[in-house]
Amino acid sequence: MSTINDNSTSQSWIERGNKHVATTYGRYPLVAVKGEGCWLWDADGKKYLDFLAGVAVNNLGHCHPKVVKALQQQAETLIHCSNFYHIPSQIELAELICNHSFGDRVFFCNSGVEANEAALKLARKYSSDNFNVDRYEVITALASFHGRSYAGISATGQDGIRKGFGPVVPGFVYVPFGEVEAIKNAITPETCAIMLEPVQGEGGIHVAPTGYLQAVRELCDEHKILLIFDEVQVGCGRTGKLFAHQHDNVAPDIMTLAKALAGGPPIGAMVATEKVSASFGPGTHGSTFGGNPLMATTAVAALRTLLDDGVLDNCVAMGDYLRSKLEQLSTRYPFAGEVRGRGLILGLQLGIPGADIVKQALQQGLLINCTAGNVLRFVPPLIVSRDEIDQAMEILELLFKEG
Predict the structure, then answer these.
(1) Which end of the chain is more exposed for a tag (fewer CB within 10 A), N or C?
(2) Backbone angles phi, psi at 265, to 5 degrees
(3) Alpha carbons 310 and 237: distance in angstroms, whole number
(4) Are residues 295 and 276 in the same domain?
(5) Beta strand 375-378 with 345-350: parallel, antiparallel or unpaired?
(6) 8 Å CB contact between 160 and 101
(7) Which residues contact 94 (CB under 8 A, 6 or more apart)?
(8) Is the pTM of this model over 0.90?
(9) HEC letters along the chain
(10) What is the CATH number of the domain that holds 339?
(11) What is the pLDDT of residue 1?
(12) C-alpha torsion sign, points 304, 93, 126, 202
């Protein structure tokens, strides 16, 4: 029986995968077998500089020693038990999140889309409990992305995500991102919540305009509706603060987290105030694996490392440096345009499709991706160095010269 430690080549793995693995991804010809820090190796021994970081999952880099140690030690003690029982590391993780956020209670699950499902269910349940059952509409933004479940694609403001999967879940209204008046005009007596990403990742790396989130918060307070921030991609330090909405000094009623929360292993979380959480009593929602000992212990280690080891400061400094390098590139090549983002989630808009550049970068040993068709997305680990940024920009400059 073959394992990743045998002598199989990348091509042999790809041929095997093409026979049996679902074709839901347009995969690149890279077979990943090892990671360390900002680097990834394939089955043929080729080394790649990873500026995709598992799509903003590996915020501490690949196989951070503290994450690995926590995972190993917990795996030797207790991997899983039911949420019918109290789990010490889950309690500790909830305390950490609440002590560093607006929240009072945390529901744990396995992924970002599950966290968003929980948030949407809680918003509708809270509205039903406190107002009426017909008050269930949720306003979201065009170009948003909230996951691949039925509620996730229904909340997502992209028609292409829903194509072929109808009928979708009713009760979602889409407005342009960043336009306060559009939200104001969309609010009706049936509105129960507004759900936004402080930085749209899949939509092209769009940061909420200054004052926008505060204005939305005021509208929510005025109309007694809930504000949900989807921080699945931009939470856990990605923007230079622990949570992206903290840049705007605005607190939501509900927040969703996942991706980088455990430094690589899968975990999701929905954070809410005590008042709103009260609508999730016993039996209203659940998750078999959510917050189990293995994932919760690892997340505690990852979150403490993020908070205590200068990672956020490095994110700010390296984010500024990467932005400056991208802006320099933009001034030298006519097809390179605006640089957008915050911290270490940055996008370079192109006047040409970005897919070929992503493929060429892969061939040169740099991992990035393209979102919204023509925006190169850069989400390296938050521990990235100036030297690694320089190496990535040298590759990108080479490709731009040849392009």
Answers:
(1) N
(2) -65, 155
(3) 11
(4) yes
(5) antiparallel
(6) no
(7) 105, 106, 108
(8) yes
(9) CCCCCCCCCHHHHHHHHHHHCCCCCCCCCCCEEEEEECEEEECCCCEEEECCHHHHCCCCCECCHHHHHHHHHHHCCCCCCCCCCCCHHHHHHHHHHHHCCCCCEEEEECCHHHHHHHHHHHHHHHHHHHCCCCCCEEEEEECCCCCCCHHHHHHCECHHHHCCCCCCCCCEEEECCCCHHHHHHHCCCCEEEEEECCEECCCCCEECCCCHHHHHHHHHHHHCCEEEEECCCCCCCCCCCCCHHHHHCCCCCEEEECHHHHCCCCCEEEEECHHHHCCCCCCCCCCCCCCCHHHHHHHHHHHHHHHHCCHHHHHHHHHHHHHHHHHHHHHHCCCEEEEEEECCEEEEEECCCCHHHHHHHHHCCEECEEECCCEEEECCCCCCCHHHHHHHHHHHHHHHHHC
(10) 3.90.1150.10
(11) 38
(12) positive
Quick one: 367 and 329 in the same domain? yes
Confidence at residue 402, expressed as pLDDT on a 0 to 100 scale: 85
Q: How many CB atoms lie within 10 A of CB 364?
A: 14
Paired residues of 24 in beta bridges: none
CA–CA distance, 132 with 81 (Å, rounded to integer) = 37
Q: How many domains does the chain have?
A: 2
Amino acid occupying residue 167: P
Tell me, yes or no, whether 275 and 361 share the same domain. no
- Euclidean distance between CA atoms 383 and 326, whole angstroms: 19
Q: Which two tokens stand for residue 197?
A: 């990403």
Identify whether the C-beta of residue 13 lies closer than 8 Å to the C-beta of residue 31.
yes
Position 86 scores a pLDDT of: 98
Q: Which residue ranges in the chain fall short of pLDDT 70?
A: 1-5, 403
Residue 3 lies in a domain: no
The upper half-sphere exposure of residue 1, i.e. CA atoms within 13 Å in the direction of its Cβ, equals: 0
Tell which of 274, 308, 342 closes a domain.
308
Q: What does the radius of gyration of the chain's CA atoms come to, in whole angstroms?
A: 21
Residue 280 is part of which domain span? 66-308
The answer to whether residues 45 and 164 belong to one domain is: no
pLDDT at 7: 77
Longest CA pairwise span in the chain (Å): 64
Q: Which of 339, 338, 340, 336 is nearest to 357 (CA)?
A: 336
Query: Would residue 22 count as lying in a domain?
Result: yes
Q: Which residues pair with 199 in a beta bridge?
A: 207
Flag whether 384 is in a domain: yes
Name the domain boundary from 290, 308, 326. Answer: 308
Give a yes or no: residue 243 inside a domain: yes
Site of tokens 């892969």: 362
Residue with tokens 């840049």: 247
